[in-house]
Amino acid sequence: MKNTKNIIIIVLLIVIAVMAVGYSAFATQLKINGTAQIIGEWNVKITGIKVQSVSEGASAGTPEFTVTSASFDAKLSRPGDKIVYEVTIENAGTIDATLQSANFTSDEESGSPAIKYETTEPAKILNSGDTTTFTVTVIYDENIEEVPEVTTKTITGIIEYVQK
Fold this sequence. Notes:
Blueprint (H helix, E strand, L loop, with lengths): L1 H25 L17 E11 L9 E2 L4 E2 L10 E10 L5 E10 L8 E5 L5 E2 L4 E10 L14 E9 L1
Antiparallel strand pairs: 1-4, 2-3, 4-8, 5-7, 5-9, 6-8
């Protein structure tokens, strides 16, 4: 009986050894490599500024723009004068954009109280390939009864689009 147990143990050890050799003979290591690349392009930019309307007696000057800024130099000669500028924004990239904020401020403390600004807001969603416009209206307050000492006022606008 003791011999039988020893033989069974030896046979089992031989079977385990054969199985280990067989496993290693048929085992294969698989190696996987990969690379990820972002191909989307973010390109929201200003593509134009034009004069939409000018009241008689006012001068709109020549508006100028770059891809990130637009500027104008309005000349207002009498109360009630008004100039409307239209700014165009384009999403020339491949990533859709969402308007996060559109803030316009003017130098109220040091600027002329006779000059008023009104603005509209560009589109909230600007899909790839789309354009949107907004307007900036410059107004010489018609309720002003005398020419103010300070005759200029500056407006600054920050329009921020983010990934949708």
